[in-house]
C-alpha cells in the first residue's frame, strides 16, 4: 500500500506577538501491515538551530511547499554520555537478566570494574538540524481525518481520538525520539471499542546546544533552549494533530527521567501561570537534580572545549567541532553529574520546580499518572567513595548548590554513616544511591502526587531489579531488548493507555485509586498489576529539610534579575530580597524575639504581633540590630517634621520585583513611632510651649534590612534579608556573588539562633509589691479640663475634644515581662514591644491609624464600646445595644466624617469611600463599633502625605481636629510623648513586573493602651472624649435646630479614664504578683537545698 500524503499547516506565537505560518507536505515513511500503523517521520517543527540560531530559542519553520517529504534520513540531536554512566551499561544489561539474582556487593563491584565501551559513538547520524518529531497513527484514524479536516473530536458522536506524546530522557544530554516502538501501546488502544490513539515522539537540543548557561548566553542567547524546543513541539501538536485525526483537546504527554523532569518544568512554567500545552501527563521517574553552580555558568568550560572565547565565535564554529566539543565536555562529567541541564532563568523556569510544586505554583488543571521505580538510585553512585569524608566530597561535587551547613545536615542527620540497614542502606555505595534517588526523583514523584491530590494516580515499578529507566522496556516493545515479564509489560501498557483514553488508569478490571492522604498507588510487579498499597516514598523529610536550608531565590535568579534591562521610569533596584524558611511549630514570636535580641549586640529591637479581633493575625515580625537609627526632638535630633528624613532614607533603596516570590508585606524598612507632639510640625497652629517630662525622642525609627517573619497561615518562619546590588561605591559589595553570600551568612546566622534550644529569659529583679500610680494632674485637674472644654463646645468652637491624663507607676518588672503578661490578658490587633535602648514601648492597641494596601490608604475609626458578655446570648445582646445606641452612633458618624475628610485631603475624591460602616467587632474584653474609610492617593501625594493628613486620629484629638488640638495643648501643657501618636512601619519602595515604581508598605496603629517604661517607671495615659453628641442626634432625627441641654458629668469623665487605664494597671499588678510568687517559690526551694 502506498502511504498517503497530507499537507500540514501551522500557526504559532512564541515569545511575542509575531506570527509565523508554514506548510509542508509529508508522506508516511512506513506502514506496518500487522499493526496497521503509519509512521510519519521527521516532521519539522522548528528551523534548523544553526548559525545565528545556535544557542537561541527555537523559531518556527519557514514556508516550504516544494516537495513531499518522507523523512527517511536519520534525525538525532548531538549528544554525549558521561563516562561514568557509560560504564554502567554493561552491568545494567547483566542484572536485567531474570536468571541472575541481584547482589548489591556484586553490582557495586561490577560498576567499579566496568569499562567505557570502546568505539561507542553516540553521535553517529547526529546533526544540529534535529528539531523534528514523528507521528504514529493507525490507518483507520488517518482515513477518518481525510474525511474530516478538523479531526474526529469535532464530530460529537464519533469516537474520541487521543494523542500521546513522548519526551525522551537521558539527563538532558543523551537520547532521541528514535528507538522506542509504540506498537504495544497502540495495540492496547485499539482493543477499546471506538477508541484509538496517536503516538508522537520528539527531539530537543541536548547538552551545550540546549542547555548552555552563563552571562554571555543570558545577554546574547537563550538559557534552557532545549526546554523551549519541547514547548514549540507541544504547541505544534496542538495546532496540527487534527490533520492526522487527533484531538488537540485530548493530548497526554509522557516522559521518562529527564523527560519526566521536563514535564515538571512545563507544569510549573512561569511560576505556574502559563497553562501547560497538554491536558494530561505521565511523568515517569521525574528527574531534576538540584541546580548546581557549575550548570548555572557552564559556558566558559564549553568554550574551552571548543577552543573559542565568546558565544559569537561559538556560533561561527563548524558543526563537526561543536558536536565533538559537546560530547567531550559531557563525557568528562564527574560521577553522578551531567554538567548541562535546566537552570533557573527568571522567565520560563523561575524557580526550583520542586519548590514551586510544594508551594502550589503548578498547573493543577492537568491530571497526572506519576510513576517511579523501586531502585531509582541504582547506578548513581561513585564506587570510589569509601569514607564519610569521601561521601561529603561526593555530595559537594554532585550537588554543589548545597551550602556547607546543608551538607552537614545531610551527612550527619538525614543520611548518617550508619550501615545496619535501618535507614535503607548498608554501605557507602547504597548510601549514595538512597540520597540521589530521594533528592533527584522520589521527592518530585511524591510532591507531584500530593499536589495532584484528588485528580492524579500513581504507580511503582518493582520488577526486579527495578533499576532507573528499566521500565522503558515494559512501556514499549523494543525488539532489541524484549520485556522478560510479559505480564508486567501488559499491565503497565494497559494502565498508560486507559489513562490516555479515559483519564483513569486501569489495573485489570479495577481503576487505580486516586492519590490522596492515604498515598495509595498500584505496584507493577513481574506478575502484573498488584493491589493498591500505601506508597513507601515520602520525601517530606528531604524537601522540608532542604527547603529550610536553601536560600531563595537562587544566586542565578538574583543575577538574572539584576542583569535584566531596566525599562521602568523609576530608579533601578538596589536590593533583592532573599530568605530561608523554617517551621514555626516549636518557636513562638516571643521566644524568637528573646533569642534574636540576646544574640544582637544592639540595644534596639522590636516585636510586632497581632490578634485580629477574635482571630490570631497572620503575621508577626521580629528584628534586632538595626543598621541605622533616625531620631528627632530635643536632645536626640532636629526639632522638625521627622517624615522628610525618613522618606529620603527609604528612597535610597528600591526592592527588585522577583516573580512569584511570596513574602509578607514587611521585608525591611523603618520600624518605630511618631509621637503625638510631632503634630506641631504637621499643623503649626497647634504649637504651644510644652513641658517635656518624659524626655524621649519625639520620633524614633530603626532601619532594618533583615526581618524575621512568622506566617501563621502556613506555620513557617521566613528569615528575610537583602542582597545589596553592587554600585561601585566604597561601602558597596564588589561583586554580586559577594553580596549574595553576605546575605546568606546573615540569614544562616539568624536561622541557627532560632533553632538553638537556649532562650535567655529576661533577668527579673526582686519584685516590690504595693507601689501606687500617680496622675500628672489629679482628679481636680482633669475635671477642670472637662469643664473648660464643655464651655468651648457650648460656644460652638468644637464638637469634640479628648483631654488626657498620665499616670506614673513605679515597677520592678522587666519591661518584656510586662509585655508577656499584657499579650495574654489583652490580645489586640496591634501588639508590640519596642526596645529603644533607654526606654521601652509596650502596647496592645485596638485601632489602626493608617495603612496602605493594594493601592489604597485605609483608616479605621473606632467609637462606641461595650463589654463582652458572659454568655453568647449576653454577648449578642450587648452588641445589639451598641449598634442601636444613638449616642455612640452619632459620635461614630462624626469620626467617620473626620476620617473621610482626612483621606479626601490626599486622595482622589472619586475613590474615597466608606468600605464598612459601624460594624461590631469583638475583642478580648470589649466590643467596638468599627468603620473603614479608604481612598486612592492622588498622583502628587505619597503615603507620608496620607500619614500627615490622618495624624493624629480623631479618636485622640477631637473635631474640628486642629482647633481641638490647640485647646488640648493649652490645657495639658505637657508633651504627651508616644501616647496618641503612632507605632508601626514604613517599608522600602519596590518595582512591579514592568519596572514601574511601587510605593512601600505602611501600617501604623494609634498608641492607645500603650505603656512607656523608663528608669523603673511605667507611664500610662488615657483620655475620654468630651462631645456634643446630642447636637448630632438633633440634626439626624429632627432636621432643624432647637435648644440643647449639655449634661456631661465631670466626675464620670474622669472615672472613664481610670477605667480605660484599669486593664494596663491590672496587668502590671497581676504580673508583679505572678513573678513575686515565682521568686518566693524559688527562694523556698533554694532554702530547702541549703
From TrEMBL:
Organism: Purpureocillium lavendulum
Protein name: Anthranilate synthase component I
Comp. bias (Basic residues): 58-68
Source organism superkingdom: Eukaryota
Protein family according to the UniProt entry: Belongs to the type-B carboxylesterase/lipase family.
Domain Chorismate-utilising enzyme C-terminal: 779-1060
Transmembrane segments: none
Record carries keyword Endoplasmic reticulum: no
Residue stretches making up the Anthranilate synthase component I N-terminal domain: 585-713
An example molecular function term from Gene Ontology annotations: hydrolase activity
Keywords tagged on the record: Hydrolase
Keyword hit for Nucleotide-binding: no
Gene Ontology BP annotations: L-tryptophan biosynthetic process
A Pfam family matched in the record: Anth_synt_I_N
InterPro entries, per the entry: AB_hydrolase_fold (IPR029058), ADC_synthase (IPR005801), Anth_synth_I-like (IPR019999), Anth_synth_I_N (IPR006805), CarbesteraseB (IPR002018), Carboxylesterase_B_AS (IPR019826), Chorismate_C (IPR015890)
Domain Carboxylesterase type B: 31-517
Chain intervals for the UniProt region annotation (Disordered): 58-79
